[in-house]
Write a structure and sequence with these properties.
Mean pLDDT: 81
Helix content: over 70%
Number of helices: 13
Low-confidence stretches: none
Number of domains: 1
Radius of gyration: 20 Å
Structural class: mainly alpha
Number of strands: 0
Order of helices and strands: HHHHHHHHHHHHH
Strand content: under 5%
Distance between the termini: 47 Å
Largest sheet: none
Length: about 300
Amino acid sequence: MLQVLQRELIYIWYYFDVQFRQIAFYWIFGMAVGSFVSVFAKDRIHEMFSAMQGKKLGVLGVIPASILGILSPLCMYGTIPIAASFSEKGIRHDWLAAFMMSSVLLNPQLMMYSLALGPAASMIRLVSCTVCGIVAGFLVWLFYERKGSRSFFNFDGFAPGKSHDTDPNLLMRYLKNLGRNIKATGLYFLIGVLLSALFQRYVPSDRFAELFGSANKGFGVLMAATIGVPLYVCGGGTIPLLQEWLWSGMSMGSAASFMITGPATKITNLGALKIVLGIRRFLLYLLYVMGFSLLTGILVNSLL
């Protein structure tokens, strides 16, 4: 019994070590870029979004709003107070919807980390998340803003929190931000690598390919969209799993679907969104996320 256990631990350690070596660079690179943006570019990005108010963009403002949402390094609990301040300044709620939707799905750190999945998957993630924000903003304009119901969100009680990036020394400010990044994502990254190692050892790749591969594209997309809800805890923890799944035969459409429903239904994000949306609009948000992820997955599979 002990010999069997020892053998399995050796196998798992081997898979863990290989996966860690393959992906650690992307995790470190992603954190370095994310901290750089957070320290040196975050305020500029938010100023650019606020400056949109003086331009007559109309509903087309959802396009730059979605792009700026992806560039913003804040998590959802950091984005909502910022969005609340934008709302007080008179920023349109369809623009805010686009900004917040894309910000939920992607940020500079996760974008750099996603390069571990390959250029095709990274580009699909970037494009699909941007489009998801744009469409969300357009729908808010179509059904609320255009009809004169401006207040789609309820930001009562939210105000921008105190920034942690206050050290007068820029290098120390950056290093402290990087340290907080490592502390926040490091454990989830290691758990993701471990789960990937366990997957390689105990899940037959041919059976996995039957469920999520090209031979079962429609059902695979539906399954990927569904498992994204309970499995997604941290972006850093899911990249190792996604990398292994793609190697094991998961279709690109299924991966794209997972990359949308995962962060969009992350439990901490849902808690924050339910407060500002209310129950009815919160349910519409969930319906939109699932519908968009399914359509994205089906479209990607049909094109590739």
